[in-house]
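Appendix C: a fully annotated inverse folding record. The material below is reproduced so that readers can follow the format used throughout the book. The structure is listed first as tokens, followed by the designed sequence.
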């Protein structure tokens, strides 16, 4: 039988045809290696903190005894060094344990793919600060938007942003609206954002405050200190509304912060225990200052009489 000229039969490569699950697993294992810690760089703008707490002490002890059980994830950079994607706590534990290498899985990832993997892996932590979530969500959203711009240049920015937030929400316990709120926190000045992390300011008022300019936020910070109070959600919304109308002056911020909140307990006039323990419990709340002033006036007259007798 004559062979048809010009025809070419594509055959599956021999190695691919007979490759087993075991050989594929071995190929993946070959990407796991001990890498000198000195050759591993931190992830740029990594939003998650490595805390020196009791959990870290336990991790260091575990690493000393058994080494790193779960490999960290890195990618190799153009200069030959490695970039740490996940495993920042494990790397720190190795350093504290005196080890010179870190067990790593090397993955071929683009910069944006690395950001997405970094965020997803760290969001599995049991404790995450609001600021960590905020910057992590923002980094991932921006990475996803860049990927979308490369593959679909016809999509409107607003549509891209909404779709990206929904994709992020699908992999977390937060709705896409909650993801948006977290990202708003990145607009807060550092001092106020720290107050959110320390639970001194509630989450929702903080989101509304994020719309204020940097200067207005610092004015609010001073007003909070002066009034020893943080804004309620209603007060934060009111300030945002005044800001949008161009009417949020320093005086307006101070006036809003001086408003009495519903069910607000009256603050004690003095915080210093040396003063409060000397004020009789029979003194009505709100009259402590008058009592202290009268006591000081009486004491001052006593000193003056003593000086007169000494002459």
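Designed amino acids, in order:
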């Amino acid at each position: 039988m004559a062979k048809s000229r010009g025809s070419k039969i594509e055959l599956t490569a021999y190695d691919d045809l007979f490759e087993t699950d075991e050989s594929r697993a071995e190929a993946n294992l070959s990407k796991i290696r001990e890498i000198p810690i000195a050759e591993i760089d931190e992830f740029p703008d990594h939003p998650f903190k490595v805390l020196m707490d009791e959990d870290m002490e336990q991790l260091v002890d575990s690493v000393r005894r058994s080494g790193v059980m779960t490999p960290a994830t890195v990618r190799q950079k153009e200069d030959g060094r490695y970039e740490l994607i996940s495993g920042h706590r494990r790397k720190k534990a190795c350093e504290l344990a005196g080890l010179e290498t870190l067990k790593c899985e090397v993955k071929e990832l683009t910069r944006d793919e690395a950001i997405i993997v970094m965020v997803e892996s760290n969001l599995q932590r049991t404790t995450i600060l609001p600021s960590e979530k905020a910057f992590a969500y923002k980094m991932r959203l921006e990475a996803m938007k860049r990927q979308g711009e490369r593959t679909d240049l016809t999509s409107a920015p607003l549509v891209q942003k909404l779709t990206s937030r929904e994709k992020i929400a699908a992999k977390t316990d937060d709705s896409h609206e909650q993801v948006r709120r977290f990202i708003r926190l990145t607009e807060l000045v550092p001092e106020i954002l720290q107050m959110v992390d320390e639970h001194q300011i509630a989450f929702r008022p903080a989101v509304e405050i994020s719309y204020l300019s940097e200067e207005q936020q610092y004015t609010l910070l001073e007003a909070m200190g002066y009034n020893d109070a943080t804004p309620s959600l209603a007060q934060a919304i009111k300030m945002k509304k005044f800001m949008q109308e161009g009417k949020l002056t320093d005086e307006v911020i101070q006036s809003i912060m001086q408003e009495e909140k519903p069910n607000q307990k009256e603050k004690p006039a003095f915080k210093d225990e040396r003063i409060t323990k000397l004020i009789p419990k029979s003194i009505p709340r709100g009259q402590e200052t008058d009592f202290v002033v009268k006591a000081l006036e009486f004491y001052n007259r006593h000193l003056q009489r003593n000086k007169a007798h000494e002459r």
